[in-house]
Structures are given as C-alpha cells and as structure tokens.
Amino acid sequence: SAVISQKPSRDICQRGTSLTIQCQVDSQVTMMFWYRQQPGQSLTLIATANQGSEATYESGFVIDKFPISRPNLTFSTLTVSNMSPEDSSIYLCSVLQGQETQYFGPGTRLLVL
Amino acid sequence: AQSVAQPEDQVNVAEGNPLTVKCTYSVSGNPYLFWYVQYPNRGLQFLLKYITGDNLVKGSYGFEAEFNKSQTSFHLKKPSALVSDSALYFCAVSPPRGSTLGRLYFGRGTQLTVWP
C-alpha cells in the first residue's frame, strides 16, 4: 500500500488564524480525499482533491473555509481558514489505490483555542 | 441515502474469547465494504474488504468478516481476541460506480476492549 505522510502531526492554533495541512504520498495516485474526525465522532468526507482542477466539496463544506490544492499526483494541501474552536478535529488525507481501497495518512490533530 | 450502522458503541471481551463487531448498511446497488482500525493517536489502518465472491473474507491480524446480503450486514470477527486488539473499529461502505466512486461512508465506530 502507499505510504502517506502528513504535516504537521499536531498543532495548537488561535481562533481566527489559518492552518495548512500537507499530505504527501510516495507514489502517484488518481484520487485523494480529505476527512475530518471531530472528537469522539466518526469520519466525515470534506472533499475530493482533484489534480489540476477545483476540489469537489461535500455538503456542508465550502471552499472558502477549506481551500484545497492538488498540484500533482502525489501531493495535496488542506487549509482550515479563520479557525474557531469548533474546528478542533483530526484531519486525515486518504488515497484510493486501484478502484477499491482507501489508505489513510496518520492524521493531523488540531486544537483551536 | 447511504448509511452505515454500528449498533454497539463498545464491545468488551476477555482475551482468548471470540469477538464480533457488528455492522449493517443501507447503500444502493452492490457496495464495497470495509473495516478499518484506529489505535490511539494513530490514523486509520485498513483491515479487510469485501468486493465480490466468497462471503467470508480474511484480513490482517487474524480478523475476518462475513458478508450477508439478505441482512445487509458485514460483521467483523476474530476467533481468539488479544489485548492488543483493543482499539476503535470503523465499518465503511463505498458505492462502486459513477460519481461516487471512492467515497467512503463510515459508521460511528465501535470501541473494542479486550481484558487480560
């Protein structure tokens, strides 16, 4: 399976600021995704990161709040903008290998004060 | 609408006993089914999947899962639990085709605790 890394692994941020999370894969993949896992909750898909075009956002998530870039087939970033304490979550990127299985990065643990 | 249900928030078993973590789903068509495990302060690790074929699939760490189409269930099982199996387990489904390819819908998760 692909090896996926995320930076930073964790951060503590002040409300009103923005944080950019990086996701790096060791091989080219067609599809990359970003998920949010709020404390004690399951995972919710934020968006599909499309290479060379705008990300596809799920209901309840907007580009202004969660801008995503995907400049190539091995890298993507998610920015959490104008943060509030409600944005405190684990943010995970994942990649689709083959047509079936998603593999996840280790996650970025974000605490907003 | 797609949905995944894990009816038990917690499952507690003694080491050496068999374990079952339940999952039922409501997805149109013939979805792909998955189990993931999350250890404390770690990301999600893929355990196993059902795509087609034999209803009993085997995965990592001695886990297996049984697909039951009539009951729309995909229960995770292990014949003999280990303390190290203690973790949070997620069931997930993915519609296999079209614009929803690759999207995963997750259950709420089941915290498995194995007592020594």
Question: How is this structure best described in words?
Answer:
The complex is a heterodimer of chains A (113) and B (116). In chain A, strand 5 and strand 6 form a beta hairpin. The model of chain A has no long low-confidence stretch (mean pLDDT 94). Chain A has strands at residues 4-7, 10-13, 19-25, 31-37, 43-49, 56-57, 68-72, 75-80, 89-97, 101-104, 108-112. Chain A is mostly beta strands. Chain A is built from no helices and eleven strands. By secondary structure, chain B is mainly β. Chain B has no helices and twelve strands. Chain B has strands at 3-5, 10-14, 19-21, 24-26, 32-38, 44-50, 56-58, 64-68, 73-78, 87-94, 105-106, 110-115. In chain B, the strands form three sheets. In chain B, strands 2, 5, 6, 10, 11 and 12 form a six-stranded mixed β-sheet that branches. Chain B has a four-stranded antiparallel β-sheet with strand order 3-9-8-7, with no helix packed on it. In chain B, strands 1-4 form a two-stranded antiparallel ribbon. In chain B, a hairpin with a 5-residue loop joins strand 7 (56-58) and strand 8 (64-68). Chain B starts with a strand and ends with a strand. The model of chain B has no long low-confidence stretch (mean pLDDT 91).
Give the helices and strands of chain B as they follow along the chain: EEEEEEEEEEEE
Low-pLDDT windows of residues of chain B:
none
Enumerate the spans of chain A where pLDDT stays under 50 for 5 or more consecutive residues.
none
Shape of chain A: globular
Output mean pLDDT of chain A.
94
Number of helices of chain B: 0
Overall pLDDT score of chain B: 91
**What is the CA-CA span between the terminal residues of chain B?**
41 Å
Q: Strand content of the residues of chain A, in percent?
A: over 45%
What general form of chain B does the structure show? globular
Helix content class of chain B? under 10%
